[in-house]
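Researcher: I'd like a structural prediction for the single chain below. Treat it as a standalone chain; there are no partners to consider.
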Amino acid sequence: MDIDEPVEQAYKKLKSYIYYDNTLNILRHKISEFETGEDFEKKLGKVSKILNDLDSVEDFAKIIEEYQIDKTIMPKGISLEDELHSEDEEKFITNDFEASGYKAERTKYLVDADIEIHIIAVLWVMKVGYKLENNFSNNSYGYKLELSKENNNQIAKGLKLFKPYFYQYQDWRDNALDAAQALTKRGKDTAIIGLDIKGYFNNVELSFDKLRQEIKNEFGVNDDSNEIMLTNLLEEIYKEYAKSIGKENFEGKGLPLPIGLLSSSVLANWYLKEFDQAVVEEVNPSYYGRYVDDILIVISNPIIDQNKSSQKTALEKIIEKYLCDNNILNKSDKLKENQDAENKSDDDQNKEAESENKEKKSEYQITVQNEVGELVYDNLAIQNKKINVYYLKADGSQAILENFKENIRRNSSEFRFLPENHKIENEFKFEAHSMLYDDSVNKLNSIKAFRHNKYKASVYLSKKIYASRLWDKDSKDAKNTAEQIMKFFKGKICLEFHILWEKIFAYFILKEMKSEFVEFYSYVIKLIDKLSFEGDNTQEKKLKEDLERHLEIAAAIPLSLNPEFLDKEVKNNLVKKLKSVEADISDENIKLSDIAENIREANLMRHNLVFTPLLNYTNLARESESYINLTEKNLHKYYDNNFKDEKSEDIEEQLEFDPKLNEYSPRFIKFNEFNNYFIFKNLFFGNKTEGEDVLDNYLEESYGEFKEINDELGISIKDQDKYFELKINGEKVSNVKNKAKKVKAKKAPSSTKKFKIKELKVSDDESREKLNIGVANIKLSENDFKKSYRKNYNLSAARKEKLFRILNLSYTEKVNGNELDIIILPEVSVPPAWLSLLADYSRRHQKAIVCGLEHFISNNDTAYNLIVTILPFMVDDYKYSLVKARIKNHYSPAEKEQLTGNHLELPEQNFWHYDKFIWRDVHFACYNCYELTDIVHRSIFKSEVDLLIASVYNRDVNYFSNIVESVSRDVHCYFIQVNSSNYGDTRVTQPSKTEVKDIMRFKGGENPAILATSIDIIKLRNFQFVKYNLQKASENNLKNTPPDFNKEKVKERMRDFRYD
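Model: Treating it as a single chain, here is the predicted structure.
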């Protein structure tokens, strides 16, 4: 059955949205089931046919009847049901959150519908909803659509439906703070009013008649148009959902918004259009911003009634002065019968009406009126508990704003740093658990409450997971962490923080902690069994079933990375544990493996936990008889466990990209991921065409796949030269997929090989007249090298901590207040398995990295010593990095002895390979230790570069010291050498007089560190350009350029900089 392109686009956008979402895991599972079914394309084709044949109400009824539209119930607040916890919370403070029973105080409804219904909702946004956004206020920040200016402000192609949540939320919040701060700086008193609409999505009373009228006006269409037909179908979907949550009496009242249906996000903004307009026009605030149902209003010079006889609080006076007097809000004088803000059933409301009557009378209702004086919103109120007013005197302390902004800054930078273990543990201990005081923190009697911080707990788990995926098992650390987790997620806290269950299971699976996995799973099942809800029995049963379903999927998502984790023994242990709750349970009732396999097949696992780059996109990820472990850190284990007896070409075929996984990728695949994939793939199999070497063409291969796969996703990829330009021996190379243009190589004097010198210019608008350099001072270990020869790389926590420390310091270290541009590490300092970490770090922080990798051992036991240069850049405000790996040309005699003594082969290459880089207008090249001993090789960049970098692991520091000083003067450039700290002579040298040649030089130290300095590129070029007489008269201490130095080359480099 034919699939319309818009239907396929809608499905891909839906899948991508859910991939990034952390709250709709049940929908994630439904998508995986939908896509992995045998009739996937038939189902998409059927949606196309349905939408092409829409004619009448009868058609709508058939669709609604065919597809499921229901609800999922999740708890929002949990109370403890026993005598111990009935005490006054402020007088009886405990860390015991377990009880004999748990009560769901409030619940939250989410839509539970077939994927076809979700596709229709996305299509409505793509075809109709986008037009409504044209009339939204600029003050509306949440769920902004990703529109294309080139396409008449319609939905942009590609995977995005909405702009990224974080940036929109950040703008909403920061703009309010900036507005308040600007007012106080101008000497004006300021009030920031924070409001939250109570149970917003569920209490909306959406009129589709009103919506249809606006659509007709916007599109200029009639009742028979596709836009109106699609809207009519959406209305029927919303009606069916309303029935599922007990709101059958919607006629004449309007319909609620189903949470989880993406059309609701657009309609949530459309519904409050009049509210936005009224606040701006009637209140005229200095700032007004709304993020869906969260509201911030900034008032300049607020007037507060100082009448002492008034019984109203200052907060009430401000709310009434600016919002009630302007007919935005008003206090409710009666209990609305249809108020259902907290998603409770009608029966629950009747039971609780009497006790809540007083509170509801004091609620502020939204009382905005239309042109004829009618209430626009009959059923919306502001949550009393979430009304906040921050009143700031201009001549008072601004600590509130400053501290709040500092906390934001600290939280936003939380993930810029790589997680160092000792810091994570302290953060969790002191921040995830918090005390509330009413007096001095030194007084025990000042403690008024003991709280758990969900955000901090989430951060802790995320950091532990991130770090755990990089290092090998550390049983002591893992045991301590598991103990912390089990103590924190007890009773009420465990149920309230159900959104974090997936992260807990992810940690246990990454650490292969099978007994802890079983223990936590069974513990949660027991908690759910003790959960009650003051609705009818059907509602309570549904709540429990949905929570168990959520648990099952939370465990299955990380399990999809390694389905073999749930072996027969684990299943049997789980069944034993669960029999105390469900006596008739058997391993056949446990569907974890089925769910995990669906998620795996649909590629909806967490890709950041896949260790080997893009392995989850290959045939190997799907077509094996038993699923491989995608978190495995050693490629050789895949080979030994699965393919040892297979032909090399068969294994290679398994590592080819799977077309369906590419076509329905839930995300944009980054360029550096393709770089890493092809580096490892080509080295592992020794791939090379006749007359070429193993890494000759991987950049071109990377770009070819990068463009083809992302183009297929609707993501526009520019031509290669917009990302990088490649020349080989001066001839430009354009991409032809999997095949680079052959160029002539240059003959090296006194050698049987020719040179292939690649010039790689990375596209970037930035320029550096001074380059800020961070040099790593780190001690390397011979034992690590010996392990690598046996394909058993040291990926310990201790080693990871050293690398993380270096990278974190590179972020905090500054040179004259400016951030570092480039970080340089020694030869063989990083395990190959961690290359993807460095590439991503470089991309995110836009810092270049030069380092040596430990020997990568291929499947035929060839040992590749690699120097890697990672260059970050920006294209259209998006961050990229390019990974250039080069095989060492000259292995040292001692290195050869070690490798051959361990039964390893040395690589055979047809050419001498070197790279010249042009990045941010700085020209430089890199050498790998023993290459510097070849007098011809170390002179090839004379007149060509501003800087040479040498990553070395070298005991003979005196010999290399002479080479460094010689090269710096002969090539006439800055020279940076980085060695292991125990051997030293790490230095930054310039071509100048002996007494001032070293800008920085050091040796020693046990702890990893970064030493920072800068080199003046423009000073060097200006000096090189002038003739001998002016060089001699110069006072900058540089040595004269050597004979035959090509000043035309310097002149070309000088054009790089943009002079005013």
